[in-house]
Structure formats: C-alpha cells, structure tokens
Amino acid sequence: MKPDNAGMPGEEWKLDERKVGRYLDRADEFPHRAEGEAVLLGAARERFVGDKRVELVRHDLAEPLPDLGHFDAVVSSFAIHHLEHERKRSLYGEVFDLLEPAGVFANFEHVASATQRLHAAFFAAIDEPLENADPSDRLLDVWTQLGWLRELGFDDVDCYWKWLEMALLVGVKPGETR
Predict the structure, then answer these.
(1) pTM exceeds 0.85
(2) Which residue, 20, 53, 57, 129, has most beta carbons within 10 Å?
(3) Containing H/E element for 161?
(4) How many helices (H) and strands (E) does the chain have?
(5) Which candidate, 121, 107, 113, places its Cα nearest to that of 160?
(6) Which CATH architecture best describes the domain 12-172?
(7) Which residue ranges make up each domain of the chain?
(8) Which helix (H) or strand (E) holds 47?
(9) Spatial CB neighbours of 102, under 8 Å, sequence gap ≥ 6
(10) Would you call 4 helix, strand, or coil by DSSP?
C-alpha cells in the first residue's frame, strides 16, 4: 500500500519498502552512530530519569511545530536532514521560540560532506553502496547550519561531535536558568 504522503518531496524513501527495511536492519550497525547517540541520550537520561513530565510526541517536521509549551531542551536525531533547507532553517527558529532561557537544542544529524570524494568515503565506511543513498536526504553542511543557529540567536553554538557525515550540533538559548 502506498503511504498517503508518498508523493511529497522528502517522502520518496517510503515508496521502496526494500530500502526502508534495509535501512532499519542496518541503522544500529553504522560505525560510530551509537557513540554519537550515546553522547546525546546519556545527557537526556541523566537529566530526565524518572521524570513523568517527559513525553514523546509524534509529529511531521515538514509542518510547523505544535504548541506544546516551553522546554528546557529540544533534541532531534536523524530527522531534520530529510527537510528542505528552507524548512530546516525555519524549524530551528521554531525550536528557539519553544526553548526556555538557557534551554538547549541538540541535533544529532546526517550532514553533507565537503566533497563528493568524502561523501563516497562515508558510504564506504558504513559499507553501503553509494547508489543506495536515500533520495529523500537533503544534506547540508555543518557550517551553514551552525551559522543559522547563531543568526537565530542561539549562543554556544558548536559541532560538539562529528564523524564523517554524522554530527551533533548544539545551541543554547540566551538567558538565565529559572
């Protein structure tokens, strides 16, 4: 069965169930993925252990974020790179608006390599043929994204961890904690 939104930009991957299955079968095996996620998830686990106020909400990021209140942290992992670049930038602004003063935005993401040769090296490192690249990927370099975060008002913006085309981008909303 074809998903309802399969014809939308960024949804091409849903049309080929073999690609989806292959990705899901291999996702946990990507070199250093677990290491990068551990940095992100380790901090979240420590911060929210036993906190019943933390809730996971399913949402299509191509649409504006729902009004869920304000947060001390917003975390994303391997999702935003499927959005068109304009939507990425506007989403970062929406995240900024949702954060409390001193709130943290952490985005563990698939990013663009600086050259085609480095892109091919990433695929070789994860033992994936280059022709299996996900057509819904809208990869963007780290520096552009960090620049956007700074322009939107985030402080302490940096790439806190990177391995080839995987990176942890972080920014903090200015202000004092409560």
Answers:
(1) no
(2) 20
(3) strand 155-163
(4) 5, 4
(5) 107
(6) 3-Layer(aba) Sandwich (3.40)
(7) 12-172
(8) helix 33-48
(9) 72, 172, 173, 174, 175, 176, 177
(10) coil
Asked if 100 and 72 touch (Cβ cutoff 8 Å), the reply is: yes
Give 76's strand partners. Answer: 107
Amino acid identity, residue 98? Answer: L
Q: Which two tokens stand for residue 98?
A: 């949702």
Burial class (CB in 10 A: 0-12, 13-18, 19+), 15: middle
Find residue 43's DSSP bridge partners: none
Helix (H, G, I), strand (E, B) or coil at 3: coil
Helices 142-151, 85-98: inter-axial angle, 10-degree rounding? 40
pLDDT for 104-160, tens place per residue? 999 999 999 999 999 999 999 999 999 989 888 999 999 999 999 999 999 999 999
